[in-house]
Amino acid sequence: MTDEQAIRTLIENWVTAVHAGDLDTVLADHARDLVMFDVPPPYDGVRGLDAYRDTWPGFFEWQKSGASFALESLEVTAGSDVAFAFALLHCRNADDNPERLLRLTIGLRKVDGRWTVTHEHHSFPHDDEPAAPAITAILDRWGTDTAARDLDALMEPIAEDVVSYEIDGNYVGKPAVREVCAAGLATAPGTITFTVPDPAVESAGDLAVAWSVDHITADGTETTSRATRVFRRTGDGWKLIHQHLSYPAS
User: Fold this and answer.
1) Cis status, amide bond into 42, omega within 30 of 0
2) Mean pLDDT (the chain, rounded)
3) Last residue of some domain: 123, 146, 161?
4) Which of 123, 146, 173 is the last residue of a domain?
5) What per-residue confidence (pLDDT) applies to 250?
């Protein structure tokens, strides 16, 4: 086996162990003075094998939710006693953007004839676009789709696991919310409009929160309600995962 093949096997085994939550294999072939630059803080890196070990239990808990950790590509360059490798990996939930890949660089040193990881650098590209225009566009599109009574279009930006606290009850799942919307449209056989003037939107990473006062006109009667909505960015765009609608108590 060449050095490049040995390093490739080492990294492939490490990736498999991460996905399986096998801590012993994850730690194997790592130097005691390892330095890791990880996605979360600390900004000056995780230093030492004990500190490296402590980063994994929380990640493994997240993995149990059905997340993937798998190689997309791997390149290895090896000298006589120093080597490096760089890779792209899928590190995501099933509904996350599949094009957003984890970047990995590994530095290795040969110790007593065995390749040992001395440095890891994990990162995602900083590709966050402002969420406000996309969320505002969804709210505006809901107005157009409400006026057109297009129930399928109204449902498109709603997540399958949405939880909605409506005026008249709590609803879990997209089918339940669809029934609520269908019933609302049916109560107004004439003209119906939905507008959200000047919504506020705050976002960080793949989550966004919007709050507003909604205006609904049904057959000439206008009502307003308070709304807080939470969106998650997925590979299919922003999806509503929670909303809370209410009237003030009189």
Assistant:
1) yes
2) 92
3) 123
4) 123
5) 62
pLDDT of residue 129: 65
Long-range contacts of 140-149 (CB under 8 A, 24+ apart): 140/196, 142/194, 142/196, 143/193, 143/194, 143/195, 143/196, 146/185, 146/192, 146/193, 146/194, 147/191, 147/192, 147/193, 147/194, 149/185, 149/192
Contact 56, 45 (CB under 8 A): no
Alpha-carbon span 42 to 55, nearest angstrom = 11
Question: Is the Cβ–Cβ distance between 245 and 166 less than 8 Å?
Answer: yes
pLDDT at 43: 87
As a whole number of angstroms, the distance between CA 164 and CA 184 comes to: 14
- Phi/psi for 191 (5° steps) reads -80, 135
What domain count does the chain have? 2
- Structural domain boundaries enclosing 146: 131-246
Query: Where does the chain have alpha helices with state H?
Result: 3-20, 23-27, 49-54, 56-63, 131-148, 151-155, 174-186
Quote the longest CA-to-CA distance of the chain. 83
Instruction: Pull the structure tokens for residue 216.
Output: 């609904």
Q: How far apart are CA 46 and CA 59, in angstroms?
A: 15
Does 205 share its domain with 139? yes
**What length is written for the chain?**
250
The whole-number pLDDT of residue 65 equals: 84
Residue whose structure tokens are 């790592």: 30
Q: Would the pTM of this model clear 0.70, i.e. be above it?
A: no
Place of tokens 């330095």: 35
Tell me, yes or no, whether 17 and 60 share the same domain: yes
Residues of the chain with pLDDT under 70: 127-129, 250
